[in-house]
Amino acid sequence: MEPNARQKQVLIINAAPMFREFLKEKLSSENVSVEISDSRLDSFSKVVRILPDLIIIDIESSFDEVMDLLERKMSDPNAKRIPVIISGPVMDRAQISSLVQFGVVKYFSKPIKFDIFFEAIGKIIRVNLSMDTTPCVLEIHHNGNIIFVEIAQGLNREKISLLKYRITEMIDNYKIREPKMIVMMTNLQLSFVDGINVELLLDTVTADERIQHRNIKILSLDNFMDEFIDGHVEYVGVKVIKDLTSALGSLVGKNNSNDEATDIIANSILAGDDSDADGMVDIRFGADGADGDELNTEGSLLNIAIVDDDEVVRRILSQSFVALGITTETFDSGAKFAQAIQTKNYDLAVLDIFMQGVSGYDILKQLRGRERPIPVIVYSQAVQREYVIQALSLGAKGYLAKPQKPEVILRKAMEILHERI
After folding, report:
1. 3-state secondary structure 157-223
2. N or C terminus: which one in the chain shows less Cβ crowding within 10 Å?
């Protein structure tokens, strides 16, 4: 910052905890002062007291309350010129255009593309905000009390920093007891040049004290990870493994008897999750291939494949998804689905394991060879430990035991569809 230059100030209003803390950490690291208003009652008083360079408002529920704040802001001669960025649900362009008169200069539909979001902030407050542009695919999802983090292409510091909040949010919102973690990074080749980013990653996955180090497994084929962890006492207990099957086995009770292992699988992976997931924030980066226009409100309709030889299951699941405005295609055999994915893509598939001819395992193996595999939820009567582990090892994002209430499958599907950081 130039000598005697005034420090820029940003006021964040009504933001969800993960969104708020990530914004605050990022902006503070760039020497931007950040104020937080969690209460709708004191938001306007903070606006007129601080007179920040930028107001960021996150819409979680009532848009009327936001409009009331914007109208009060415009009535104050000192505050009316303060620019506003709003993040919220998808709105049509007419609604967004109507916000311009209240000083709203940008509206970001969720999930937010954070690189574009920070670029907009930097331009408005005239501060060059640094962003790590390293290509990186980072996804996080859970099965029962096991949290899976998948990293490919590279290590991006912005995404890794966000991961810390996403892990804590997932544990809190899904009420995960004794959380365990597998960090999968088998496609990464690392060297001492990556040391600072590897350290940030390890600090991130060990940050939440509820995850004991002995319950953290790093799936990597690179000897660098072994050497790096061995050289740092703060990571004692974290283990590097080279095989996902053995890692899953150790986390769900590899050394237990068959009956005990089946019980553990049922309790920690197969059980439906009835917890409340409200408050989850989906965050993405424009570089991930998403549309870079933050005003784009014409999201494509989701298309979900349901692959099961049980007609009742197909009908119930299809009706449940369609009720949410989601398009479905049903397949009564693995062979028909295998043929369909040669020419079509789906946002997600709900897949049975044991079908005549082409099995669910065959499908999972076929999907692994794709550049961008279709996320899969396995929905099966098979509850044996080896079946579950095999499915997860082949890339299934979720495993639910039949029968489940339709809302359980819907909730799991929404979680997986929004898991990419």
Report:
1. HHHHHHHHHHHHHHHHHCCCCCCEEEEECCCCCCCHHHHHHHHHHHHHHCCCCCCCHHHEEEECCCH
2. N
